[in-house]
Amino acid sequence: MKLRGKFNSMLVLVFGLGLGATGYLSYKQLNENARDEVLSNARVLMETILSARTWAVNEVGPNLRETVEGEDLLMMGIPSYAADKVMEAVQKRFPEYGYREAALNPTNVVHRPADWEAKIINSFRSDANKTEEWGIRQSPKGPILYLAHPIQIKQAGCLACHTTPDKSPPQVVTKYGAENGYGWKLKEIVGAQIVSVPLSVSIDNANRMFVTFMGTLTGVFVVLFILLNLMLTALIIKRVGAMANIADEISKGNFEMGEFNEKGSDEVAHLSASFNRMRRSIVKAMEIFSKQSGG
Question: Where are the domains positioned within the chain?
């Protein structure tokens, strides 16, 4: 294999390994950034809903229970109702976002957890210090990131509708029945708030950035490959090739070839100077040999 072939093989190997490593790391980092961005959005939404629930528990609920009897007004003081209303407003702008309050023993049966939601609730119940859980689930519309917080009965006001049917507001019993959502206790973790945010848009953006980055990096590699080959040709291959041609002619007895250009201070220039000295020595030695043979 010629010098150019060896050089290019090594160059392609080095750039190929570098491109592969860079591609792997950049793809991983871009996807992690996309996931973290979605997780941050989920946390913002969760905090918004938590604020609505806190407002309903501390300010709306107590006042309504003391002053009104209408079912519609009374519902405004229920934390889950307030959270659902906030989410309805959010979904008008972001319909792909989701929110659920899943409970093991809910007043409203629509809040009964699916199997994966029940696992989240039980993980919170088994570890009282655990305040957050997130993960990625696959759906027909693509991957979805979920963020879950435990629903813990921290205030006695939250038990107004969940101790026994006779202590619950009649409107709540009439609406949801007396079979579910009772027997809750203070400090008990009864469910989980779960925010769902699609990953597909952020992942698609990350993938487009990855393709653009890798395309640019490959283009830079091609340009560098061409430039390095031109430099290799001009600085080494062309000069060494010329020396090889002169050496070949000398080996055939042709001493009429001119000396090689010694300009420069690099290694090839030093080699050229050494080559010219060797050529002159050979020519002088042949002349001496010729005279001695003729004599």
Answer: 3-207
